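Hey,
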Amino acid sequence: MKWLADENIEQPVVDALRESGHDVLFITEMERGLPDDEVLRQAEADSRILLTNDKDFGELVFRLRRAATGIVLLRLETEVGAEKAVRLKQILPTIEPRLVGHFAVVTQRGVRLRPLRSVSIPD
């Protein structure tokens, strides 16, 4: 799966996805300080799932109806990147097939999936 990790995502989370064979671009390694709207546009243009800790992307896709392939918002109690990586790796096998076209909120207790209105389907 193709991902775009927002700059607020911890390096261990990016590393864990890459070690699992995912294609991950990381804003921190590309161009720090991009506005959220531009980050979302880049993810959508390359049919990547956006991974973020930032709730503002919900406003962009639901209230402002910006297009997105899919978004995963990490809302975990821990701030430790390695712990977030473990949680993401735990839930990915069950949610990965449903990420395209959805806004997923990952918490300690589970995952909430909400369909996106404007969706870019990857080739």
